[in-house]
């Protein structure tokens, strides 16, 4: 019976395994976002959070231990400077793991390991897109799409600041799950994060409104029309304000019935014709 088997072995010896994890932690601190397999990401996140805790301490002992662990000395100023100030108020949870499907070949589960609040934070962009989509849906209930394209949506920062102050159970423009993600993401960020989030939301709203117009212009330029006379959309793609069902969207081009060019074969057409005189 095995006792005390706490961590993964990765089919490697102790020295090889520790060198691999040290290399992954160093790459994570250098790029702040790496892609690896899911088991390696979980063990790397466990060690990375301990090293960031050493960076927050900042004493001589912590510097010696971090220097002995990391493989690149140029990462140390980033650890004791940028990361220590970024996570000064955060009690823990400095890393985030996103599952990224399976790897071609051996079908191993792949994940993206990133540092929280990094400049390329995936959760930040995902939340901005969710907010932009829900704000645009709310605006389309009272205004026409063409009016929104001409005037735009300018109150995104006020909406974010209002939703940020709402407590649990209160209703607002956003869905409860989206509001909870936004509040959790902005909890330990400064006021500049609200402005950045507002810009990202506005950019995504412009993208949602401009995509159908660009597709229509491309359609008119190439003069390719469908049976209904509208510009073609891919399966599952919809324009803002579209009220079609999910089944119609999933069918895509297969849902468009092609009209026959020849005559319709009916009983009157077949048997009602007069024979040709010889």
From TrEMBL:
Keyword terms: Ribonucleoprotein, Ribosomal protein
SUPFAM superfamilies: Prokaryotic ribosomal protein L17
Highest taxon of source: Eukaryota
InterPro entries: Ribosomal_bL17, Ribosomal_bL17_CS, Ribosomal_bL17_sf
GO cellular component, one term: ribosome
NCBIfam families reported in the protein's UniProt record: L17 (TIGR00059)
Protein name in the entry: Ribosomal protein L17
Organism of derivation: Lentinula boryana
């Amino acid at each position: 019976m095995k006792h005390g088997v706490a961590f993964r072995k990765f089919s490697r010896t102790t020295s090889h395994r520790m060198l691999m994890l040290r290399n992954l932690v160093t790459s994570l601190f250098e790029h702040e976002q790496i892609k690896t397999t899911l088991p390696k990401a979980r063990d790397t996140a466990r060690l990375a959070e301990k090293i960031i805790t050493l960076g927050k301490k900042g004493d001589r002992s912590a510097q010696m231990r971090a220097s002995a662990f990391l493989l690149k000395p140029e990462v140390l100023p980033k650890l004791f400077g940028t990361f220590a100030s970024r996570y000064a108020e955060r009690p823990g949870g400095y890393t985030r793991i996103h599952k990224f499907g399976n790897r071609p070949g051996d079908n191993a589960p792949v994940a993206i390991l990133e540092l929280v609040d990094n400049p390329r934070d995936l959760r930040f962009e995902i939340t901005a897109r969710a907010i932009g989509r829900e704000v645009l849906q709310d605006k389309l209930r009272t205004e026409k799409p063409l009016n929104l394209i001409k005037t735009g949506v300018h109150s995104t920062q006020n909406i974010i600041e209002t939703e940020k102050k709402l407590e649990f159970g209160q209703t607002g423009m956003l869905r409860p799950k989206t509001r909870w993600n936004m509040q959790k993401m902005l909890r330990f960020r400064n006021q500049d994060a609200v402005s950045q989030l507002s810009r990202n939301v506005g950019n995504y709203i412009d993208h949602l409104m401009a995509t159908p117009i660009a597709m229509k212009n491309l359609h008119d330029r190439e003069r390719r029309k469908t049976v209904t006379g509208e510009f073609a959309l891919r399966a599952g793609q919809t324009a803002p304000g579209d009220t079609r069902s999910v089944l119609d969207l999933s069918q895509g081009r297969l849902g468009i019935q092609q009209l026959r060019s020849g005559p319709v074969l009916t009983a009157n057409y077949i048997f009602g014709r007069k024979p040709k005189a010889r």
